[in-house]
Amino acid sequence: MIRKIVIGVVLAVIVNHVALLIYSMGFHKxxxxxxxxxxxxxxxxxxxxSEDITVTSTGLAxxxxxxxxxxxxxxxxxxxxxxxxxxxxxxxFNNPEKDAVELDLNGDFERKHFYPHGISIYEDSxxxxxxxFAVNHxxxxxxxxxxxxxxxxxxxxxxxxxxxGKTIYSVxxxxxxxxxxxxxxxxxxxxxxxxxxxxAMTRVAWGTVGFYDNGKDSIVATGLCFANxxxxxxxxxxxxxxxxxxxxxxxxxxxxxxSLKEIKQIKLYSGLDNIEVDMHTxxxxxxxxxxxxxxxxxxxxxxxxxxxxxxxxxxxxxVTQSSNVDITEVFVDDGSMIxxxxxxxxxxxxxxxxxxxxxxxxxxVKHA
Length: 368
Known about the structure:
The protein is mostly beta strands and 368 residues long. The protein contains 3 helices and 25 strands. It has helices at residues 2-24, 193-202, 292-300; strands spanning 39-41, 52-55, 60-65, 87-92, 101-102, 104-106, 116-124, 129-136, 144-151, 156-163, 171-176, 182-186, 207-213, 216-224, 227-232, 238-243, 248-254, 260-267, 271-277, 284-289, 308-314, 326-333, 341-347, 350-355, 361-364. The strands form 6 sheets. The chain has a 5-stranded mixed β-sheet, with no helix packed on it. It is globular and about 80 Å long.
């Protein structure tokens, strides 16, 4: 009798988990397209994706392209070496009619093994210097952060430093908080294929946030179900982290020792990717996968359309667990224009929408 009860309970748990897994993939959802205004493709980019886009206070957008996808799911061979090349492009929001420009990457680092994922900028007003931080999925499988200095006259990036560490192992995104200090997300615990598949199927929350400074790296937040995008508020007091499988934005208070204290979770019921922050208003702009099963289908075959969604979050002046959040859906597409969007970067009424493997869009935000 007891054995039957135990078997029944185990089966019930398994059935419940499978049902929740299927539900989270969004098979029940329908995508209805809408745009915030006129949208067009950005020219000057190779069709190798624009996984992350980050913008300076003056409207210069840096775009990462050529991400080396990890082998924890089926990947279209056309999006693996030797068919891809890692690049960083520059787009000027002040002259949006012009092409994006590929930046030369100079310095003593392994250029041929540079496959950028998440990127961040650090504007040093005292030195008049702009630095670019890029997650690099090195061909060896050992993730690292590359730090560059932007040369405005030559339109190039000069390599300054490669950062590796014990807690820098499955990095998805990075946000700079100093000339050589930054927070970063590890989306999963495992780095081998089957371990990562296990995490994806079980939805265990083993993603983390780490911090690096002065040669030391450490974990400062845990319990995240595929930690993805990370960014920081304009006053540098709050850190934001998005989860793809959890569909949540975590808001952390940044302490004086750079540790993080969780103060709020915002459930958005979408597969969240990168977070960008409007440095003038503090608004959060999220690139999302509204129907997750279309993302996996697109990754395995780029001819399959993948859904896209842009969400804007306004948190208000004071952020607490009970404070209200204003959430606006700015853009949605079923893959007919934009496939599997990963990022939305906003600047003064204009929006860049980046993708995992495909084209990049520019939209005028006339109603949102």
